């Protein structure tokens, strides 16, 4: 692999991760300043991004998979469950945590998903608790404590409902990650995530159809923010992240993906000017330390395991 390809891969994964982090903060601005309905945004974001991802796959990869995934009844059923219970749950709970709290806390709570997966696998006796796992759990608990209390047990730094939505987002992301494994072993991730987004968006359309919005009240600024969240913060971010795997290892992409919560924290604190106390910054450091620990702890791919089997699945 040449240096040029590696530089391209680094550019793609860094850009994708930063887009994800910023899109959460932009979403908060849409909820707070422009009173965009959360149901409408999630529905529209999923439908448009899903169609665009399948379009990208059609032109740059084996387009036969787009419809091939529906020919197997079992896989088709799994894809529907993944779209409704996995994709839609992750997207909605994440956005709800942003709306009721802020993008930084929502993103960091969602990144507790790896710890939830570890605990689940230990309880199911699929793995044993190691020192690194214990260190990760301690970092997660310490990070959450400082982030959510700012060092004071008597007062939470964000509303309780935001914490609940954020924790639900982490649980949903853990389910999303584990449930997708059989599908990703047989089909390209762009196909699986593209269809899952369309299924999730279609399901939520029954509650809030995407055309139910007063377009006359949409200003140019609002429209530009919406374009960023849907196109750059969802479709392009995911596409860039997946494409970076052509020249980087899954371990490297996961590590650089930690720029997402960092971007969310910085833009929340400095752009939206959300107050962040000293102990909250300690909590941020703990959570980002957790993410780095999890990324460095990932085993390198063996000769008998394809890159596709290890491919990180992004959701933000």
Distance between the termini: 29 Å
User: How do the helices and strands follow one another from N- to C-terminus?
Assistant: HHHHHHHHHHHHHHH
The radius of gyration is: 19 Å
**What is the arithmetic mean of pLDDT?**
86
Number of strands: 0
Please state the overall shape, judged from the principal axes of the Cα atoms: globular
In total, the number of domains comes to 1
Q: Percent helix among the residues?
A: over 70%
Assess the beta-strand content as a share of residues: under 5%
Overall structural class, as computed from helix and strand content, comes to: mainly alpha
Q: How many helices in DSSP terms?
A: 15
Largest sheet: none
Low-confidence stretches: 299-310
Molecular structure report:
This protein has 316 residues and is mostly helical. The protein has one domain (3-310). The protein has helices at residues 3-32, 38-60, 64-68, 73-100, 103-110, 113-123, 131-149, 160-179, 181-186, 189-205, 220-244, 250-256, 259-270, 278-296, 307-310. The protein is globular.
